[in-house]
Amino acid sequence: MSESGARSTVSNSQFIDHQLATNELAAYYVPPTEVIKPSIVSYKATTSDHYPIFSRFNFGSAAQTRSVRLTAPNGGETLQAGKTFSITWTSSNVAQVDLTYTLDGTVWRSLASGLAASSGRYTWTVPSESSTSAKVRVADSSRTDVSDVSDGVFTLTRPVPQVFINEYLPQPNPAVPGGTTPDYDQQFVEIYNAGPTSVDLSDWTIHDAKTYSGLEAARHTFVPGTVLPAGKGYVVYSGASAVPAGAQYATYANNNGYGLRLDRGINQGGAGDAVYLVRADGTVQDSHSYQVPGVDVYQGYSFNRSPDLSATGNWSYTNPTPRTRTDGSPF
Ligand SMILES: [Ca+2]
Ligand SMILES: [Ca+2]
Ligand SMILES: [Ca+2]
């Protein structure tokens, strides 16, 4: 206001009063804001040190009710990785919309943004992710509270992944028998390459529930040049002390010493947690959650694919076998 030459008082050349306006109003501002200087003799002595000020806003269509409604996918669909799917919506008094999606109802990630609301359609190339509880949200780009979500869940399918989480250990035993505190350095995530080719893991990441939600950086980022050959496993331990000397295809979480941070199970009085293996492009390669009641955690036992080394295997409990098959033989 001062830079425009306006002054709000008799005695100060600057605009020293407060004009309260939130940034949402910027789109509706009609220039100029005027400082009214009344024709009153000795204004300061007789009336006030402060002049009246008028700001003008034209709310126009903003006063109208805005709405968006997602029409597809609206639940029950099965979408195949790599294929295209037309996401559709209807809208009223909305200029642009953003699209986001979730695999599990907790974390929403960007799908597309700044789309013309009037187009009512976006052609989505379905990511190579797996979910039976996916949803899409459409929201006014300038008013996230004006939004709508798929009424029901839909399914994302893809070919069986070559690299997947084979085993992970949330609650290690104490370092000393009889101790009470788990040796958290021993937490690990074992990923496996079922072949037939080596896979470049450069900039792939491992997350727990908190970091996947974007609250903190990844628990681990595979350094550029990390390549996992066909038929080999790679283990990321939580702490440096757990990495066997000279171990190939093993490291510890490179997140400034915070480790993997896999929380206690719900049955252990914790909130549960989840593990995500995320590709360099940010899409999810594989995940498993024990945030839901009924998926218990037992100290000293891993979650392991059953059968071992099967990308489509269920999850069972086993004695930890980081860097080997469940029978102890090497990969
Ligand atoms: Ca809806
Ligand atoms: Ca955690
Ligand atoms: Ca193993």
Automatic annotation (TrEMBL):
Region spans: Disordered: 311-331
Name of the protein: LTD domain-containing protein
A Pfam cross-reference name: LTD
Residue spans of biased composition, Polar residues class: 311-323
Domain of life per record: Bacteria
Domain named LTD: residues: 150-292
